[in-house]
Amino acid sequence: MATSVQLTFDSADPGKLAGFWAEALHYTLQPPPAGFASWDEWLREHGIPEERWNEASAIVDPDGVGPRIYFQRVPEGKTAKNRLHLDLNAGGGREIPDAERRANVDAEVARLVRLGASDVRGAMDKDGEYWVRMNDPEGNEFCVQ
Predict the structure, then answer these.
(1) pLDDT tens digits for the chain (145 residues)?
(2) Are the beta carbons of 126 and 117 closer than 8 angstroms?
(3) What is the pTM of this model?
(4) What's the CATH code of the domain at 30?
C-alpha cells in the first residue's frame, strides 16, 4: 500500500493562499471538525487567540482523490526558486490535438491570472510540449501544461 501524502506550502498569508489554490485546483477549503459550524467557532472553543487564527489553512479535493494541501505561516519570505513545484494538467493530454491543447492551457492561464497568479515567467514550447511557467500570489512557481 502506498503512503498517503500531504503537500505543505510555507506562506505569509495561509488563508489567502489557500483560497487561491482552492480555486486554482477546484478544491475546497477543509471543513471544520464535526460539531463546529466554522473554523472560527473551533478556534474560539479551543482558546486560540484571534491574532493566530490565520496561522494555517488547508484545502481538500472534494472527490477525495488528490492530496490534502496545507498552508502554514512562516516568518521568512520566499528567497529562492522552489525545489518542487506543481504542474497543472489543463491541456487535456496527448490525445488532444496540439492547437486545442494550447488553447486549453492558455484559457487556464488566463483564469489563474484573474485569480491572482502571474505568468511573467512565460510560455515554453519544446519538443512538442507546451506549458506556461507561472507564480502564485506569493511567488511560488508552478506550471500549466
Answers:
(1) 989 999 999 999 999 999 999 999 999 999 999 999 999 999 999 999 999 999 999 999 999 999 999 999 999 988 888 889 999 999 999 899 999 999 999 999 999 999 999 998 889 998 889 999 999 999 999 999 9
(2) no
(3) 0.92
(4) 3.30.720
Q: In the β-sheet with 141-144, what is the strand arrangement from edge to edge?
A: 86-88, 141-144, 129-135, 118-126
Question: In this structure, which amino acid lies at residue 68?
Answer: R
State how far the alpha carbon of 58 is from the alpha carbons of 1, 88, 92, 132, in Å: 25, 19, 27, 26
Count the domains in the chain: 2
All three cell numbers of 116: 491572482
**Could you list the residue range(s) of the whole structural domain that residue 105 is in?**
86-144
